[in-house]
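Provenance and format

Records in this collection were gathered into a single text stream. Each protein contributes a sequence line and a token line. The two records reproduced below are adjacent in the stream.
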Amino acid sequence: MISGYAKNHYPREALLLYNEMEKEEVDPDEVTMACLISACTELRDLECGKKLHAHIHESGMRICIVLRTALVDTYAKCGKLESARQLFDNLPEKNVVAWSAMIFGYTQNNQSEEALTLFKEMVGKSNQKPNEITILAALSACAHLVI
């Protein structure tokens, strides 16, 4: 249910259902937590994201790439690029979604040079190939440099 709410742009409902889970003392798994983090991102609610991040650490939950990428995306979209980059750099394995989230985070926060530097690193040093989202982020960064 939480995933359905989050993926269909009902972030408040997802978070309300999570509150009900907490009352019933039901612990979310990492996939559910990633959906909740994404709900916070959609609301641009950094405090909500920080609370969930703290809960993840306190519970000792394993942080899979999906969950860590959701955290990268939240911190980046909420303007906390240092936190986002730290999470990104600590990913044991980076997929194209993680690269795209960090590159877009820089672009959305008017740090186009950093976005393009990271894009070049992805293309030159990683085994990941950019997808259409990554290319869009890089093109947006280029456009910001020209303006």
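Adjacent record:
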Amino acid sequence: MAVRACGLIIYRRLQPAPSSKVTDSIEYLLLQTSYGTHHWTPPKGHVDPGEDDLQTAFRETQEEAGLQASQLNLIEGYKKELHYPVHGKPKTVVYWLAEMKDCNTEIKLSEEHQAFQWLKLEDACKYAEYEDMQAMLKEVHQFLCSRE
């Protein structure tokens, strides 16, 4: 049986410069783990007994980034499952997309993470070492661009 985890890809929109495209003002939140290879990911974690996937995504976001569900807008129409092995066992991670209501809201990290960054797409892809994570971030960006 695959390990199951859920999380949120969180983005914020900065005030765009008059000459720039709206999509240039989008930044994604990535957290750096304080364990293992110190990799960067969106907030995510394992599903607890009795929880549904979306509840897990919101709980983990609150635990890992200090963000309440009320501070986020869940974006309809985007949900992505990633499948990859961890220590030889299959893992499934389900991500939804959420926008910060206030782009200045403070991020409060748990002990699981040592740093966070708000990153434009190109930099977010550099920080996210895994190809499937990079592909998902690009897909999210295309999705957001198509809604403009």
